[in-house]
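Homework help board

Subject: predicted structure for assignment chain

Our instructor gave us this sequence and asked us to write out the predicted structure in token form, then describe one feature. I got the tokens but I'm not sure how to describe them. Can anyone check?
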Amino acid sequence: MKKLTKNIFLVGLAVSTLTSCDNSYLDLEPKVSIDESAALNTSKDIQVTLNGAYDGLSDVNVWGGGSQYIKELLVDDRDVVFGGTFTTLDEIWRKTIATTNGDITNLWLDSYNSINRVNNVLSAISKVDDANRNRVEGEARFIRGALYFDLVNLYGKFWGDGDNNTNLAVPLILTPTRGITQDDYRTRATVAQVYAQVIDDLTKAEQLLSSQVDNYGFASKNAAAAMLSRVYLAQGNYALARDAANRVITSGVHALAPTFADAFADGSNTEELIFRIIVTDQDGANDLNTFYGSTASNGRGDIRVQSKFLSLYSSEDSRGKFFERVNNLNFTLKFADRYGDLPIIRFAEMYLTRAECNFRLGTTVGALPISDINKIRDRAGANLLTNLTLADILKERRLELAFEGGNYLDIKRTKQSVGALTSNSNALTLPIPQREIDTNKSLVQNAGY
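My token output:
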């Protein structure tokens, strides 16, 4: 479907030194690769490399859409129908994924590509000027922590599905790969090891970054805290998930958009989106528009929302009307703008997380759980609840955050079945890409593949 890139152990910033021949007339400075001392010599160089890591993060195969629709299709239970011609996405939706699937291969490769750029930044962080060092390190750690959180959940057993200390996840690479040696053929770290690194990176990112936000396409203190709330929620650590979400809510930096539609109206709102992938007609990509958008919205119209899902919304709920019908098929309007920014973390999620954690713990940190839920429902014009159950809260997450990539975590962490498949079915975990297995004999394939 999409162009493949190099193996993960060969990608990243070109900082390796090439060896020339002895012949003096061939003794030329290479133009396709530069020495590390030149590539990462100044504070500006390192910040340029950080921008490259953001660029990798926004790739169509990662947060430019691929990560989100892979998660959504993998746990879909006929909320949508995939009606497109790409067999790679059809395999994911049907849970019959080949180890050679191009989409799951590209997600792996491009995620590690961006991680390698981050590792280059962190390897030279001492060269960054004092005024920018904390910000650069914090942003780099946010990117690395967030990407490893994606990778561990998709390519490894989910947290708590067996022994986290022995279940295999993905290779944990924390230093730059600048060339290929036997040392670069890494084994898969355990789920516990990867989660520990994710929490370490995001915790340090929150400590290093400022709450002041000039551009929501770059990591901030609240973006790190919000991502931490997801990590802790996935672990079932409700106290820490609640507290992280509460830090974001009480920071005073963000607010709900006036209407649900406003949260997805490009350029009309900045406060709802805690972190976004910026897309313009000059740069960036919106692959969620490509597959979720109707042909009337410049998409392919491949992912069609079914009446089974639409019926979950009550008649007065504006979220249930945020769809368009084209050629007798239903499509979400969340990604209707081809050049619209992609929401990665919305402020609404923080209320939902705080409400769930408070409910589970019997606490009222920040607000009563029902107050947080009704704040979201009130914004949508839905009837307010007078009593609350855990099922109500989980349903509210599904209605509010649909198609944004979060349903995968909710299905897995709450151990919900997907059709006839249990949440820990091998079919709901991605295979290690075959090209990685073939290249690196230290890697072990996931069960069922």
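Reply (TA_rk): Your tokens look well-formed. For the description, you could write something like this. The chain has one domain: 41-307+316-439. That's the kind of observation they're looking for.
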